[in-house]
Amino acid sequence: MLGLMQDWPLLCHKIIDYAATQHGEREIVTRSIEGPIVRTNYAQIRVRAKKVSQALDADGFKMGDRIATLGWNTARHMESWYGIMGIGAIYHTLNPRLFPEQLAWIMNHAEDKAILTDLSFVPILEAIADKVPSLQKIIVLTDEAHLPKDSKLQLEAYETWIGGHDGDFEWMQFDENTACGMCYTSGTTGDPKGVVYSHRSNVLHALISCQPDALGIGSNEVIMPVVPMFHANAWGIAHTAPMVGAKVVNPGALMDGASIYELLDSEKVSLTAAVPTVWLMLLAYLEESGKKLPHLKRVVIGGSACPRAMMEKFQNDYDVDVIHAWGMTEMSPIGTIGCLKPQYQGLTGAEKLDLQEKQGYAPFGVEMKVTDDENVELPWDGKTFGRLKVRGLAIANAYYGGAGEDQFDSESWFDTGDVAHINELGYMQITDRAKDVIKSGGEWISTIDLENLAVGHPDIQEAAVIGITHPRWDERPLLICIAKEGRQPSESDVLEFMEGKVAKWWMPNAVAFVDEIPHTATGKIQKIELRKQFSEYSFPDG
Ligand code: ADP
Question: I want to staple 437 with a disulfide (CB 3.0 to 4.6 A). Which of 82, 224, 361, 432 is the partner?
Answer without folding.
Answer: 432
